[in-house]
Amino acid sequence: MTDISFGKYKGLDSVILSTPYLRAEWLPEYGSKLCSLKIFSGHDEIELLYQSQQQTLALPPYNANFCDFDMSGFDECFPTIASCTMPGTGLQVPDHGEVWALPWHSEILDDGQIMFSVHSHRFKYTLSKSITLEGNQLQCRYQLSLDKDAAPLPYMWTPHALFAATPQTRLIVPSHMHSVTNVCNPSPILGPFGEQHNWPKATTHQGVHDLAQLNPPQSGLCDKFYFDQHLQQGDEFGFENDSVRVMMSVDHEIVPWLSIWKNQGGFHGHYNFALEPCTAGFDSIAEAASKKQCQVIKPGEDHKWHLNIKVSAARAQCP
Question: Which domains, and CATH codes, for the chain?
Fold first, then answer.
């Protein structure tokens, strides 16, 4: 059974779904951020998402710099990650997109779902997501609708879900994905932007590095890379540590790209990581569109996709 309740998180109104196994909490007015995702294990609660040290959260204004505000939890990035000019419009897209810094409408549906939605006046789209929590699975169903009088919209969507890292964390991706391209410029380990490496064992000028493993926060490293191979039907990806195993899946036809962000103390001193399925192959929608590596929605169309997150005890803990 799923319970729906309302609360406060660091000074902001929240809506909460909970089962005997999981508890998920969102902030509708803060971009519908998933601020907390906890698993109940015996008498313990384990927070899966990275948490900042801020005690109260300030709401970001439109066009805010993402790094000037709360960098924790799971934010929706759309229609870009990197700030750029939207192709075909001449209009600037803010850093990490528009929707993380906009208030979303929220509604509790009769079947126990939560519906969030937001409309862009600048680019004339509506992005909505319906959320269900069943047992140990969080299911998010997205719909993107473009107004009939809008220009065609190339778009990048990704779940910017920052998970709490441990030195025991190991990243899991499908076996057919075996090489990556660095998109940090430069990376102390992976070299210049665009350099390719094998996954998970990357041979660099500094030796062999296991990209599926996290370095300790004292390493001061920070990396981001995209896989050169696309997600396929039935693929799952995620991570495991000493306590939990988290696996995710998406619609591979709409969301075929997968990137990984590893912050091992190198960015603002934070220790977290993200597995980011994407509708585009670059952080900048301008660059992705120029290389025809992104989804494009036409006026009057709807695009639909899903993100499923399944949480379980680590295999070492399973009987």
Answer: 3-313 (2.70.98.10)
